[in-house]
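Give me structure tokens for this 249-residue protein.
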Amino acid sequence: MTTPPIHPNAEIGSGTTIGHFVVIEDDVQIGPNCRIGHHVIIKKGTRIGKGVQVGDHTIIGQQPMRAANSAVTVDAIHAGSIIGDSVRIGSASILYAGCQLSEDVFVADFATIREEVQIGQKTIVGRGVAIENRCTIGSFCKLETNAYITAYSTVGDRVFVAPGVLTSNDNFIGRTEERFKHFKGAVLQTGSRVGVGAVLLPGVELPAEAVLAAGAVLTKSGEPGIIYKGVPAKPAGPVPTEQLLSSNK
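Here you go.
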């Protein structure tokens, strides 16, 4: 017997519109007044709040597929994705099972949000951004085009990450068994900012209100409210007072 594209056990709220060629699996709940685009796939157990928009060709609730030599992906079935009220998700994005997006999050086209990722309210995830598994992203952040947030990273509230920023979590660069004991992503504390094309190495911390300049490589944890420039990045003076969060309330 063929399973219908929209499972009979799926719950769809009033006023919600469903595009052409949409697949909605078992035990999915979609709130009222949502807009689901064409060719969208919503996997088993997903929970979607009210007023959510989902662009064409997007997948929500994808279970991860582990490569034989994967270092951080585990063989496990994750609970369905949880999508908060008024979230907007662009076209051709993939949100994995076990991710949680708070209300008013914006996810642009071609973004990837892996399992065990939590994203706070009103954060913007830009076009082509990849957030790997086991990351926590705060509220009111901006992660701009093609930024890469590696697994095990933590991003505080009101953090700005410019286009093309890269983070890493493996100082052993994929060699030796010892590396499995030391995986650690970057830490970007509240109000920190990262310029275009900058790099943060495994486990380094960009403290509150600190700035990592464009093209810089942060190899050591910094101090709050300081600008870091160069390769490797070195202190280049304090962040101007008028740029601090405390001056922009």
